[in-house]
């Protein structure tokens, strides 16, 4: 039997039910027992959706309150010592649900009212509501957060101490949720992050003795593996017959021609999966890879006692698929990830059946599993809400998670029934229902390919007219820097700014909804936004920031806002996907050629500048980030689409300059995120990605200062490309990374100015002035003091106003203290 399988389902819910539950809990409006109960009902609903769609292998334990890696951190007791006070306070707190307080503290940080008062005037617990207040002083930052491979999802990084011990939690979550599904009438396949991926995505050692290779984390395997085996034993006793072990780490370059590493990895994988198989030989083991090709790492797997291997056929070349099919052990099944789990376009059944047909030439049907390329976590939930919102012609081209389940089932049924692609399109299937579904699919695919909505000759002509000069600033950085300092009149040492956005309060969101629903006029809405801008400019002047921002109150999202004003984009009503924690984004859909009809930001930037004599920073999102954080058309190279976006942003940059804006930030938070997993594929991507940024940003005069922002990026690997961006000021995430990012700037040299983030905006805790002074003093060990700016890690959109103001006041105080100290030394 060909199995229709799913690897994971969007956990937030069709209407972001989980987001609302979790945030209510954080605000103290929902008790932990209520949170757990409501979440269980959401899980049951998702299992039912999958079962009703005909999915035979339904995942469990793909749900998470915050992040699946954080789940495993708590599951195996990898709790850093700094959270011990939280653990103790939680044990003293009378509740039926233990672990949530510690769990969210690791995800978001935790600061009690006593600690918050010491940092500012705040009097509210900033990780849990007043109903769960703790009297003692506790103040801990969150774990480090990184991008999940090359997606816009973020995971919490495990911290493994030199003497790390592990302990399986009581009532392990995978067992609880499997039994929960079983009680509801659903047989499921529990999903676990594989031991290899869990260890290699973590960070090990310490500052004095950092590990030099991710494989060094394997020293902890001896301590961790017995607890994985204990978990598998408990799952076996609960009745589990198969387990999905996610090992996407196998899509990275791990071996790199290094025989010692190859041997270590081979021995580790053999030990892991032989031990699990020995402990529960009746449980089928499914290893799941995704986001890329496994290539040479396939050789590490071939001798393992597993039952199936999943490959991402959306990201795999035909050659890669053929190699795996030809060398697949005869006792393994092959899971074909045919349906794109990361994009929203309807699958072309003909192309998918062609892959199946080539595989069937070597592998029997009963060894095939049909699945999405990866977990559907990265897709919106359902098209149901888009009826009447998205124009019908485009809606017919789309498939969200619920629709992708039906595509999986169709391909599984088609494989069982048989098909003949050599016959005319209307005779491929003998089964009438399958033929009707196939015909409808091909009609939709053909309609999209010839639609006049997609192509714009003027855009194509402009792309063809790009010249080499359009990728370069007029003068080198030293000459520009002198002109900019003279014009801007900002401090020579430690100037301060923010990354751009200020809190999108309940009032801001409410005003936007009222305007969209017609309850207030556009003019009334504009007056409301102007009032918000005025208030925050007043605050910035009072706390004495040097470069101000208008706060972006008119923007829903840094990508969505621009997409709404550019041609070639459409938007969904409910196409939400999880980014991190409770943070959801609604990516635009790039379906056609991109162009800018009118200025997009000049009105608000010009208005904000009129309110202050201090420099006002124009805020734009860069072309690569707009591309990465959108659902992108798949009918032309991504580079072509990125150049189109770059020209539109270039027009906006020049318009801002003409309107008197002397500082312009072109955010490229996603350049590192878009890097292919394999090093051999980097050069091609980095060439067009950096060129796109340059095309967007280099048309200005010397005295106009160009900023960019990048977050959660390992710069060492791509430092020459970062230098080639030729920004005047680069702001980066730094507060969670133990200053390791700055080593790259020290090692390779960096002449422009840089703002390493002084505090983590993803946490509600308020950092003290001394904490930021200490961080600045650490930073100047790696950078020249004339290069360093003071700023947060990222935009403050998701924070509350009170904590944002308190933190920014402390940023300015810290910068002034360091300015005074270091100016005396010069």
UniProtKB/TrEMBL annotation:
<dbReference type="GO" id="GO:0003871">
    <property type="term" value="F:5-methyltetrahydropteroyltriglutamate-homocysteine S-methyltransferase activity"/>
</dbReference>
<dbReference type="GO" id="GO:0032259">
    <property type="term" value="P:methylation"/>
</dbReference>
<keyword id="KW-0028">Amino-acid biosynthesis</keyword>
<dbReference type="GO" id="GO:0009086">
    <property type="term" value="P:methionine biosynthetic process"/>
</dbReference>
<protein>
    <recommendedName>
        <fullName>5-methyltetrahydropteroyltriglutamate--homocysteine S-methyltransferase</fullName>
        <ecNumber>2.1.1.14</ecNumber>
    </recommendedName>
</protein>
<dbReference type="GO" id="GO:0008270">
    <property type="term" value="F:zinc ion binding"/>
</dbReference>
<dbReference type="Pfam" id="PF08267">
    <property type="entry name" value="Meth_synt_1"/>
</dbReference>
<feature type="domain" description="Cobalamin-independent methionine synthase MetE C-terminal/archaeal">
    <location>
        <begin position="494"/>
        <end position="816"/>
    </location>
</feature>
<keyword id="KW-0486">Methionine biosynthesis</keyword>
<comment type="pathway">
    <text>Amino-acid biosynthesis; L-methionine biosynthesis via de novo pathway; L-methionine from L-homocysteine (MetE route): step 1/1.</text>
</comment>
<feature type="domain" description="Cobalamin-independent methionine synthase MetE N-terminal">
    <location>
        <begin position="5"/>
        <end position="362"/>
    </location>
</feature>
<keyword id="KW-0862">Zinc</keyword>
<keyword id="KW-0808">Transferase</keyword>
<keyword id="KW-0489">Methyltransferase</keyword>
<comment type="similarity">
    <text>Belongs to the vitamin-B12 independent methionine synthase family.</text>
</comment>
<dbReference type="Pfam" id="PF01717">
    <property type="entry name" value="Meth_synt_2"/>
</dbReference>
<dbReference type="InterPro" id="IPR002629">
    <property type="entry name" value="Met_Synth_C/arc"/>
</dbReference>
<comment type="function">
    <text>Catalyzes the transfer of a methyl group from 5-methyltetrahydrofolate to homocysteine resulting in methionine formation.</text>
</comment>
<keyword id="KW-0479">Metal-binding</keyword>
<dbReference type="InterPro" id="IPR013215">
    <property type="entry name" value="Cbl-indep_Met_Synth_N"/>
</dbReference>
<dbReference type="InterPro" id="IPR006276">
    <property type="entry name" value="Cobalamin-indep_Met_synthase"/>
</dbReference>
<dbReference type="InterPro" id="IPR038071">
    <property type="entry name" value="UROD/MetE-like_sf"/>
</dbReference>
